[in-house]
Design a protein that fits this description.
It is a single chain. With 252 residues, the protein is α+β, with helices and mostly antiparallel strands. It has five helices and eleven strands; from the N terminus they run E-E-E-E-E-E-E-E-E-H-H-H-H-E-E-H. Strand 8 and strand 9 (98-107) form a beta hairpin. The N and C termini lie far apart (74 Å).
Length: 252
């Protein structure tokens, strides 16, 4: 039996209310890893499962895309539980139509990254001479690190769209991206040992930085919280201090 195309979405799609945007859904060949050109349709369902947009035709696209003007969901209720449903087949490889249901959120605003290829070159100018074959930047590593940061935020109970201080994530994003850049360099250069050391160093620094991050969150009305919230919750593992226990015991 032929293997099915691979979808590599790592987190829910954020649909920004009132904004012109493009939602993408790439599919990859299961053996070669090449991105597939697809035909099909796409529709958007709200949190109640009702179709609020579509189906919209997709013709010979790489990747599958849904273009939004910003006027589609201006009166809809913000929140989780939305879905983008892609019904796709590969144009040249003969794969039958298959339905891919991508979780989505209708949000007031997306969390945007404040790190770019230029940020990495400020730390290590020599990286401009080490781009992978066919590439002119380290954008892939920057985007991969950004995806990982967003997934980690979700895993710790922080919704990225509720964060109003993206600059608080810039150092962690930079360190994680550098770790991945040097990990990549170690696979195709003669001085791989040095690059492995740099990758390990930046990965360790990233973990330390993650524990220091404080974020201003949306209170629900688009206004920032009065005080920042730690990205990593503080866990108290000890019992009540002895002086308080003693004070309670003296009441009996």
């Amino acid at each position: 039996m032929a293997r099915e195309p691979r979808a590599t979405t790592t987190r829910p799609a954020d649909i920004e209310q009132g904004a012109e945007q493009v939602v993408q859904f790439p599919l990859y060949h299961p053996e070669t890893g090449a991105e597939l050109t697809v035909d099909g349709t796409v529709e958007v369902l709200d949190a109640g499962g009702e179709v609020v947009l579509g189906p919209t035709a997709i013709v010979a696209a790489t990747p599958a895309e849904l273009s939004l003007t910003g006027a589609e969901f201006t009166t809809a209720v913000l929140g989780l539980g939305w879905a983008v449903v892609w019904t796709l087949s590969a144009v040249a490889d003969g794969y039958p139509l298959k339905v891919y249901r991508q979780r989505a959120r209708l949000v007031r605003q997306r969390l945007y990254a404040v790190v770019s290829n230029a940020t990495l070159l400020e730390r290590h100018p020599e990286l401009s001479a080490l781009y992978p074959t066919g590439e002119t930047s380290w954008d892939a590593a920057v985007e991969s690190a950004w995806d990982s940061l967003n997934v980690r935020l979700l895993q710790t109970g922080k919704r990225p769209d509720m964060i109003l201080s993206p600059e608080a994530l810039s150092e962690a994003h930079t360190l994680l991206a550098l770790s991945r850049v040097f990990r990549t360099c170690s696979t195709y250069t003669a001085t791989s040992g040095r690059y492995v050391e740099l990758a390990d160093k930046y990965e360790s620094q990233y973990e330390l930085e993650w524990g220091r991050i404080s974020l201003y969150l949306d209170r629900g009305d688009g206004q920032a919280s009065e005080s920042p919230v730690a990205a990593v919750p503080v866990l108290y593992t000890s019992g009540t201090p002895m002086r308080y226990r003693d004070r309670r015991l003296r009441r009996f």
